[in-house]
C-alpha cells in the first residue's frame, strides 16, 4: 500500500501534469469506486478545473474550482498513470479523467476509492488523522509530547494513522532500522534518548523515501524517471536473509500484530 513518500511523489508529479487544467470528459467503469451516482459524479467534475493537488497522510486531494475535492485513497494495488493516445497501460481502469488529449487513469481501485466531497465532508473525513511527520510544525517537542501517551509495540505505534499520519508497513521497518530500535520494543519503554533518535529517523527516512521516488514500481507517465527508486535503497524491508548493511548479520522476517516485519536483531536493540 502506498505510504507518505509514494503519495508525495504522486502529488509532485501529477501537479506538473494536470494542475491548472480543465477536465473535459469523465469515464467511470466501476461504480463502487465512487461515492455518488455516476451521472452526478460526471456532471460535477466535467468542465471543472483542478486548481491544486494536495496530500494528507496516504490520501491525495484534487481541489476543484467548484469548491469540492476528489479524495483518493489507493489502498492495496491502486495506482495512477497519465497518458493519452498510444500511451496507455493495459490494465483495468476504474475512473478516467481527460484533459483534452491527456488522460489521467485511476487503476486497480478494487479496495481504494475516489470520492467527491464538499469542503466540510473532506474536513470530517480527515479529522481523525495524526500530525504530518515532515511538516515544519511537527517538532521534536511535539513528538516527545505524543510519546508520553503511547503504549504498545513501536511498529504498531508508527503505523497508527491517528498517532502519526502517513507511515505504513515498509517505512515503519526502515525507521526502526535507522533508529537502531527493534520494532517489537514497547513504545512506553523507550528512553528519551531513544525517542529523540526515533524522531530524527522518522524525518530522515521519509525524506529519503521522497528523494528516491518511493517504492511504487509503475511510473506516473512515460517520462517519469523518479517513481520506484526507493526499491534499490531499502535498509531491511523485504530483504529477509540478506546481510544487514550495518553489521553484516542476516535480516530477519517476523510478524508483529499480523504485519510482516523486517529487522536486524544484532544492531537493533
From TrEMBL:
It holds the Pfam family Fapy_DNA_glyco. Belongs to the FPG family. It catalyses: Hydrolysis of DNA containing ring-opened 7-methylguanine residues, releasing 2,6-diamino-4-hydroxy-5-(N-methyl)formamidopyrimidine; 2'-deoxyribonucleotide-(2'-deoxyribose 5'-phosphate)-2'-deoxyribonucleotide-DNA = a 3'-end 2'-deoxyribonucleotide-(2,3-dehydro-2,3-deoxyribose 5'-phosphate)-DNA + a 5'-end 5'-phospho-2'-deoxyribonucleoside-DNA + H(+). Monomer. The keyword Chloroplast does not apply. Keywords: DNA damage, DNA repair, DNA-binding, Glycosidase, Hydrolase, Lyase, Metal-binding, Multifunctional enzyme, Zinc, Zinc-finger. One of its GO terms (biological process) is base-excision repair. Residues 2-100 form the Formamidopyrimidine-DNA glycosylase catalytic domain. Its EC number is 3.2.2.23, 4.2.99.18. Its cofactor is Zn(2+). The keyword DNA-binding applies. Coiled coil: none annotated. GO terms for molecular function: 8-oxo-7,8-dihydroguanine DNA N-glycosylase activity; class I DNA-(apurinic or apyrimidinic site) endonuclease activity; damaged DNA binding; double-stranded DNA binding; zinc ion binding. This is Formamidopyrimidine-DNA glycosylase. Residues 235-269 form the FPG-type domain.
